UniProtKB/TrEMBL annotation:
Gene Ontology MF terms in the entry: iron ion binding; iron-sulfur cluster binding
Pfam families: NifU_N
Protein name: SUF system NifU family Fe-S cluster assembly protein
Matches recorded under SUPFAM superfamilies: SufE/NifU
Domain NIF system FeS cluster assembly NifU N-terminal, chain residue ranges per copy: 6-124
Organism of provenance: Alteribacter lacisalsi
Leader sequence residues: none
InterPro entries: NIF_FeS_clus_asmbl_NifU_N
GO biological process: iron-sulfur cluster assembly
Length: 143
């Protein structure tokens, strides 16, 4: 029952992408999934208070990558880089290790938990988060 609900949520995000228009103002980054060729362009704009004022994407790819882009764009808006970093780490744990990050609210992205069992699809689910790493998190959170 829960798996069916999650599957429907993924399909809904893939078919009716949220925050999908090209953004005319702000910064952008084109990103290509190195394992399958799915592509996205991420757009973002920071607010004066240091939070992410707006975020959107355009892209083409499988249902998992497009749903993940849509979900990510919803949960990172109005967050600080530190908040986004925590969300990024939680998604990595969910997808790569199969651990539900109970202390972090991943919103609809939690429906991607089943991707953990599909190793070949890990980069599909993590594609927008990898783009965020390249776009702005790597500069602020170097290991």
């Amino acid at each position: 029952m829960l798996n069916d609900l999650y599957r429907q949520l993924i399909i809904d995000h893939a078919k009716r992408k949220r925050n999908h228009p090209k953004m005319e103002e702000g910064t952008s980054l084109h990103y290509k999934n190195p394992t399958c060729g799915d592509v996205m362009t991420l757009y973002w704009r920071w607010d004066n208070d240091g939070t992410l004022a707006d975020v959107s994407f355009i892209g083409e790819g499988c249902s998992i990558s497009m749903a993940s882009c849509s979900m990510m764009s919803e949960i990172i808006r109005r967050k600080t880089p530190a908040d986004i970093h925590v969300l990024r780490q939680a998604m990595e744990e969910l997808i790569r290790e199969g651990r539900d990050p109970e202390s972090t609210d991943l919103g609809d992205a939690l429906s991607l938990a089943g991707v953990h069992r599909l190793r070949a699809r890990h980069n599909c689910a993590l594609m927008p988060w990898q783009a965020i790493d390249r776009a702005f998190l790597n500069d602020q959170f170097k290991s």
